[in-house]
């Protein structure tokens, strides 16, 4: 890193790819380990703690509820504390939650550990978005944002083989996740510049940029983004919460195939980094609709043929790639609506994704118990299809001029 210019609060610096890589790793451990691994171990945890599907869904929802609370808090403190401190705290919270899960003697402590671990994802997203907007050159920001966001895929990719190797020793698996989280926390601390962000959590703009860029872009309404994010979160809960249970209970899959499914979801999710070029080619609206249809097809396909190895492989790959790419599109959509309030825009979008997941997870568990997992998957596929139509609202929702 080399000093470049002075901003109103701290010395502006140029950063290399190290910060982007560390940010992707932090997203990976927060999402791939601390948040989504519960679904990977759901059968073992249900057997260990004698949980019903409904109770398992409620416990799984705890991580999403923790996310909702944490992201609001993170949006408030990131401009005051600075991205480095808040991102470092996200890593510490993830580590602590993973440790609690690994040693939990009761279902109550399991739920508490998952809530703490899941909270780390909400803490992490705003400071990383603000850091990229602040310290990465403008032409590279879209690519950097989507690369960091694709860290979820890397986290899921790594968690799968660990789970397979330690299927019968799930506490050791979560302990391994905790060690990885601690290492990434140190990495983010040594690579991210210190100092505070601007008062609104935005990136520094040059004086010759159009004044319209200093406000919400062209007065564009945020409502379609928020609704689309909610529908995406609601549609994704079937696979994230019940995906492994579906192919194990209704498809008689063994541990190897179940682990392969999770690994493929993560590997394909890394391709979510391509959401930036996709948006540049067909725009936010087109990208969102195409990817939501892909998410719907993958979810329905898994329910249609849970015994088919080919369908499991294709469905897992399509779902993983579509999900991570959708979060990347939501991120870029938010930065366009709030070009000078990056952390706020991204935080609001990701909050609505988590709200959808928090509401959907317990309903998915209850629905799975009463009607079967396939029914839940078909319903979520229908929600995804409806969500593909939401961007049309951009052209029919009246724009509201933002206040000065």
UniProtKB/TrEMBL annotation:
Positions of transmembrane segments: 15-34, 54-77, 89-108, 114-135, 147-166, 172-190, 222-243, 255-274, 286-305, 311-334, 346-365, 371-390
Record's keyword annotation contains Iron: no
GO CC aspect terms: plasma membrane
Bilayer topology term: Multi-pass membrane protein
Domain of life assignment: Bacteria
Any one Gene Ontology molecular-function term assigned to this protein's record: transmembrane transporter activity
InterPro entries attached to this UniProt entry: MFS, MFS_4, MFS_dom, MFS_trans_sf
Keywords carried by this UniProt record: Membrane, Transmembrane, Transmembrane helix
Localization terms from the record: Cell membrane
Database matches in SUPFAM superfamilies: MFS general substrate transporter
Domain called Major facilitator superfamily (MFS) profile: residue spans: 20-399
Signal peptide location: none
Coiled-coil annotated spans: none
Record protein name field: MFS transporter
Origin species: Nocardioides bruguierae
Highest classification ranks of the organism: Bacteria, Bacillati, Actinomycetota, Actinomycetes, Propionibacteriales
């Amino acid at each position: 890193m080399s000093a470049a210019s002075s901003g109103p609060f701290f010395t502006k610096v140029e950063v290399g790819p190290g910060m982007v890589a560390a940010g992707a790793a932090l997203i990976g451990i927060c999402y791939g380990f601390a948040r989504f691994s519960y679904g990977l171990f759901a059968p073992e945890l249900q057997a260990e703690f004698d949980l019903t599907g409904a109770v398992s869904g409620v416990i799984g929802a705890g991580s999403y509820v923790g996310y909702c609370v944490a992201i609001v808090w993170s949006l408030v403190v990131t401009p005051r504390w600075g991205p480095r401190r808040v991102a470092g705290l996200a890593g510490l919270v993830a580590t602590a939650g993973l440790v609690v899960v690994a040693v939990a003697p009761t279902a109550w402590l399991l739920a508490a550990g998952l809530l703490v671990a899941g909270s780390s994802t909400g803490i992490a997203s705003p400071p990383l978005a603000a850091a990229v907007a602040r310290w990465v050159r403008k032409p590279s920001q879209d690519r950097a944002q989507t690369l960091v966001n694709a860290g979820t895929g890397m986290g899921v990719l790594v968690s799968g083989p660990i789970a397979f190797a330690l299927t019968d020793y799930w506490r050791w698996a979560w302990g391994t996740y905790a060690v990885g989280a601690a290492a990434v926390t140190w990495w983010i601390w040594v690579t991210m510049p210190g100092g505070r962000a601007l008062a609104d959590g935005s990136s520094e703009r040059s004086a010759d940029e159009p004044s319209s860029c200093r406000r919400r872009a062209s007065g564009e309404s945020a409502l379609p983004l928020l609704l689309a994010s909610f529908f995406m979160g609601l549609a994704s809960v079937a696979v994230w919460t019940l995906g492994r249970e579906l192919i194990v209970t209704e498809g008689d899959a063994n541990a190897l195939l179940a682990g392969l499914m999770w690994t493929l979801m993560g590997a394909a999710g890394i391709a979510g980094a391509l959401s930036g070029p996709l948006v540049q080619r067909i725009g936010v609206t087109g990208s969102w609709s195409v990817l939501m249809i892909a998410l719907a097809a993958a979810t329905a396909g898994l329910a249609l043929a849970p015994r088919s190895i080919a369908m499991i492989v294709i469905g897992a790959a399509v779902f993983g790639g579509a999900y991570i790419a959708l979060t990347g599109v939501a991120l870029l959509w938010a930065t366009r609506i709030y070009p000078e309030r990056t952390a706020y825009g991204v935080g609001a979008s990701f909050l609505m994704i988590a709200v959808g997941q928090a509401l959907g997870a317990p309903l998915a568990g209850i629905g799975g118990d009463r009607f079967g997992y396939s029914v839940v998957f078909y319903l979520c596929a229908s929600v995804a299809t409806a969500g593909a139509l939401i961007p049309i609202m951009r052209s029919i929702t009246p724009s509201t001029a933002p206040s000065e």
